Amino acid sequence: MPILLALMFLVMVGFGIIIPVLPFYAENFGASPAELGWLMAVYPVMQLLSASVWRRFSDRIGHRRVMMIGIISLAMPFFLMAISSYTFHNNFISIQKKMLS
């Protein structure tokens, strides 16, 4: 349990660090306020939609296996970003990371 709490803390800190500076990055890329709103809304909406899927999957195969799948799928993009040297690859991996978490 303490390991899971530590992992969730690190994930939420990583997400929380991005939130305050995201409007400035979006403005740099020419995003409108509406696009920024959509960008901010995607994470909680996808979390809401995927929670029911993972809950059913957890009931079927067990919560420990689902947690391990989640931890591994969260660790893979970080590892890929560490070994990647191209900006495009890092951006693509970052999008995958957000989709998997």
From TrEMBL:
A matching Pfam family: MFS_1
Subcellular location: Cell membrane
Domain Major facilitator superfamily (MFS) profile per the UniProt entry, residue ranges: 1-101
One cellular-component annotation, GO: plasma membrane
Residues passing through the membrane, by range: 7-26, 38-54, 66-88
Superkingdom of this protein's organism: Bacteria
Membrane topology, from the record: Multi-pass membrane protein
Keywords, comma-separated and alphabetical: Cell membrane, Membrane, Transmembrane, Transmembrane helix, Transport
GO molecular function, one term: transmembrane transporter activity
UniProt-recorded name of the protein: Major facilitator superfamily (MFS) profile domain-containing protein
Taxon lineage: Bacteria, Bacillati, Bacillota, Bacilli, Bacillales
